[in-house]
Amino acid sequence: MVHVRKTRPYLPDELVDRYTKQEVATVHEAMGKRGAMTHEIKPIVPGMRTCGRALTVKCHRGDNIMLIKAISMAQKGDVIVADMGTAIDNGPFGEVLAVECVTKGIAGLIVTGSVRDSMAIARLEFPVFSMGLSVLGTSKATLGTINHPIVCGGVQVNPGDLVLGDNDGVVVVPFEEAEEILAAANRRTESEAAVMERLRRGESLFDIYQYQKVFDSLHCIEEE
What we know:
The structure is a single chain. Helix content is 33%, strand content 21%. It has 224 residues and is α/β, with parallel strands linked by helices. The strands form three sheets. Strands 1, 2, 3, 4, 6, 8, 11 and 12 form an eight-stranded mixed β-sheet that branches. A two-stranded parallel ribbon has the order 5-7. The model has no long low-confidence stretch (mean pLDDT 96).
């Protein structure tokens, strides 16, 4: 078995840049309500945003040697997506690794576990999305994989997929669908802008989307 793969699909910089202007919720809806990680994966500090190409890593429980290797391999604009197994209470990432990430231009870290040194990471303005904070240490003794498919936050992530994170959570766009989903997200953004303008003019969302038809189909009885 090859533990560390060095090749993966590569989305163009221009396409990734266009995704930076999107919101996670909009992209999730544009994908047909797919791709959203579970609510446990959240920014360690409100307001953090990340967008980039997935570099995937799977670590053994309580061990961060593969994460360190992945960071050493990462390129500018990558988002490292790490499956730490069930080791939620270990902190495999902190200020020291964050300094390396910032220096290399890595776009962010998504991890199914905890991190430490949260305030220092915030001062570095490095986007980290995790399940919590913990100072418990890790070992460096067991192999995992890099650039293999993983599951993070309930979503399959393949190397090279587009990863977008903001205050609402994280969404993963499959590499082969990136162009199509971006176009759908742009259409949704334009549609919602038009709806909000109508709301500002005094209309009701209930009427605009004709939700009364749903109530009628459910045979809702209202007081006269």
